[in-house]
Input
Amino acid sequence: MNAGRGAGRFAWPLFGLAGALSLVAIVFLGLSWSETLPPGSFGFRGFTLLFVVAFGTVGALIASRHASNSIGWIFLVAALLSSIQELAQEYAVYADASPDRAWGAVAAWIPAWIWIPGTGAMLFLLLLFPDGHLLSPRWRWAAWLGALGIVIGVAGLAFAPGPLENFASIDNPFGVDGLAFFGPGGSTALSLYGVALLLAATSIVLRYRRSSGTQRQQLKWLVTSGVFIALTLSFSFVAQYALSIDEGSAYLSLSLVVIAAFVSMPVATGIAVLQYRLYDIDLVIKKTVVFALITASLTIVFLGALALTLGGVVGGLLIAVTFGPIRDRARRIADRIVYGRRATPYEMLSEFTNRIGDAYAADDVLPEMADVLRRATGADVARVWLKVGGAFRQVAGSPDDAPAADAFATDGAIEVRHQGETLGALSVQMPANDALDPTRERFAQDLASQAGLVLRNVSLVEELRESRRRIVTAQDERARTLERNIHDGAQQQLVALAVKQRLAAGLISRDPSRAEALLEELQAQTGDALENLRDLARGIYPPLLADKGLVAALEAQGRKAATPVTLHAGEIGRYPQEIESAVYFCVLEALTNVAKYARASHVTVTLGQEAGALAFDVTDDGAGFDRSALSYGTGLQGMTDRLEALGGALHVQSSAGNGTTVRGSVPVAPVL
Output
């Protein structure tokens, strides 16, 4: 990995070398502007400078970031060869105008053959794009076929005797008699080269057909470009060497088409890099754009100063004064080019951090978090999930009118953790043609790490709200149950007693013996009604608990339990009413659960005080259950709420076939 980074340092210097050679070529182009290319020359003067800019820029961006990927280096080699070709050709034209200028023949010799490896780079780009590897090992022979065609073609053109291509008046200074490109060797080279190029285009088409999602969007542009290059270059060979079309309007039109085909390759790659985030080089692109904009702007300022004859000193002062505003403006433009309409991800993160301040309410924080996540990643929908009661619940989404998700899906979601505990998650729904790339995924992870403490506060508030809601609901349910029990039980009994009392009063004078029997019956029924009222009172607050304390009240309930109960109590004293009632009702709820679900033969209840807390255990020998597969029901949740309201806690230990232990504790003062 370090070796790759080290090699990446040479990407921009290599691009700079190609640019420097191109600048020298432009100088010679200016010196010989009145001259025209000799008959038979391909294209227009200076056309390869387009290749230097297009191939060099894309190649440097990729190679500087992904040095181990050959794609960037192939682009850079094509740019460097194009700059050498242009420099040699422009100097040859310049030297041809004056025969006494040295090295003219050598300069004219270079463009005769260097275009073959330059255009051959396209062949390997199509074979290796985008990851630098062939579609499969079976395609190696296509690469070797193309390489062989390039070598034979270079050798044939470089050492063919006679007039040079593009410079018919100059004989090849390195020509070898008997080695003619337009003989069998030349035909072989063109055939191998052409077949390999068509195979490379086939390879990229097959890669496209096997791709999906974002990669398919990235490849579709290059597929179009590759097929365009393969067809136009093959037709160019046929037209130039088989049909002898080497001048006139048809030849110029052909030249334009071939030039456009070659330029389409880096353009297609640039679209894949910029629009579909190929290679994850946002930051490199931004720095490059900023540098280019600053350089161009300062150059304009300095040249403007010179044009106004203000002199170099004043021009330097203008540069110093305008550098800051130009730099800021360049950064904004670069951000717009790289990130589109959204701000840079970390500007969004900074903005979010500043805006949340001390706000803890979910209504304020979480929608803001979802909005920042959506805008920074370019997602269609962003959602924030809060883990409440062991389940994930969507608590915010952006945009506001986005439909809520049916259920939480772990795929593509990023957990929000704090101190090792999962508090919630962030999730995004990306456009079909713009998947979540590594840069934006890292931002989402950074946002999740920043959101941990925020979600902790929100979670506490939500847990408090939820517990209050459960307490109110439980109180309402208990009130309705009490009302129903009074109506269906004690009230009906009292109504019946009143009716019988009136009946007994009417029988006293008419049938004393029957009235006496009825009064005895009324006494028994009155005792039953009194016992029912006492049972109802025990459900509110047991009189025995108030009079005798926890041990006596639990012993009485244990004798009534459906499953045999053994009570072990340590040094237990009296405690405030709210503490005794919380422990009492929690133990009763646990005994009820044992009777309903455990299928146990025995239950042990243990009470004790230790470390400043009143603790209880309810252990059964029943079937048990898998804790990971079940969450708290209403009974256990109610017990938890009771204890947590007093600063206590509840823990459940169970496994299939090994029974269950419900353990609770609540802080208390020393025993009285």
Notes: The chain is about 65% helix and 10% strand. The first helix runs from residue 2 to 8. Confidence is low (pLDDT under 50) at residues 281-291, 337-343.
